[in-house]
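Case study 2.
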Amino acid sequence: MWLRAARETSGGVAGLTGRGRAPLSRVRWVLLLAGLMVTPSKGSSPESPDPNREPGGESVRSVEVRSPARLHLGMLSFGDPAIRSFGGVGLMVERPGVWLRMQSAAELSARGPLAERAVGFAAACRKHWGLSETEACEIEVVEAPREHVGLGSGTQLALAVAAGLWQLHVRNAGEVGEEHLFEREEAFDFARATGRGRRSCVGLHGFSRGGLVIEGGRHTDSKTEAGGDPAGAATSFSPMVARVRLPSQWRCLVLTQRDASGLSGEQEQQVFAGLPPVAREVTGELARIATLELVPAAVEGDFDEFAGAVFRYGRLAGRPFEAAALQQPHAESIADTITLLGELGVRGAAQSSWGPTIFACCRSLEQAAGVLERFEDLGIAAHFDATITRFDNDGASLRLLS
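Prediction:
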């Protein structure tokens, strides 16, 4: 297959670690391929407030919401009624995230990718907050990752839509140009409004302030709760037990295989219902890696230890789900790509959720660009949507436009 041929072609390139610096022109070329020179960053300077508008004047009419993408390394435990289920480890990255523009309107409407889902989330929010039919909004989905590829797009879209509607019709305060970051309780309310957070809550916690996130899971009566009621709302959420901001110089190469998708919906529910519980020995080792390797390495900025822990956690967390994962059409190519990344000197590579997204933790922009350039040379990049991005340490943001 295409990947195996590329790996054979790679030969002795295992020494590519990013310590050298690629020529600037080639780095720029790789960045253009990754889209880094197209989209303005989420942290760009806010617009200057209108000097003619006095405090307490006209209500804000339009907002912009940006949220990061979620990478999920795997669950700590599942299926054992004596142990919390659905806890796990995740990372938030700036791109490819959700970017919305929303403005007040007399009825709900949306355009852009995932527009129908956006309207559904807005309708659920309006019901949750007891808003009238005319307290609505127009939603422009400027950017959003593909659904069911391991980037948490459903949760991030839901929370972003809820945040925008909340600002327009519930909070309804602030000055034009003001930027708002979200507290945990605000994110929880958005999740209740849209029915998110019924299983893993990595994306929910990451929406509020980003970072490396470790959640503890929650007690359940039955592993069939993994499927859940799509219309239901969580009454409690898996607690976050650790969050660490990652060094700004580190980068993440996000690779999503084209023409492939992971498990979701009823199919995912059926798979969970047929899985045996995660062995307690596996849960114990995953907890050890998370708390004694990942967290300390992130706090100290020890990239080598962090990257090694990402790989070990991801590999072990996937074993309880291996039988189901191997049935996916993209399973072999994803495994081969992670192996190839290791041969290219990338230690911190893993699959996100059910795939087909994988990611590679890189020490620097130069290393990430060099790896992507090798993928181009080997003819692999054409099979992936590739993005070089920073790890997100802020979570979602809302800016008042007018």
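Residues 280-300 form the longest helix (21 residues).
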